[in-house]
Amino acid sequence: MDVRPFNGNRERELVVVAYALYVVGFFGMLAPSVLALGLNYWRRDRSGSCYGSHHRWMIRTFWWGMLWAAIGFFLFFAVIGYVLLVIVSVWWVYRVIRGVLALADEQAMPLSLLRAPRHSL
What we know:
The protein is built from four helices and no strands. It is an all-alpha fold.
């Protein structure tokens, strides 16, 4: 993957707006997260590899979060559902904070859920 340094203020602002919408969406309002998801899909291939990696990161965060939250809601009356919703909430917050910190350091996000970002020396 070609990872070029961050070079566009407009693209950076769009990524910041998307992260902010995810933060607002976390507090029980799904609409801001859906708007952010639309922004992510719109800009993921147009933003260059560094900013595009943040858009792809947020897309994966949204869909995996929705999948596990749906399972948690389905199992809500069983204790495991409540526990799963708490875990998904903590995971969602972790992913947003990790993305924002990487953006502040002008680092790309990893391609998969399991790989850590590469740091240049």
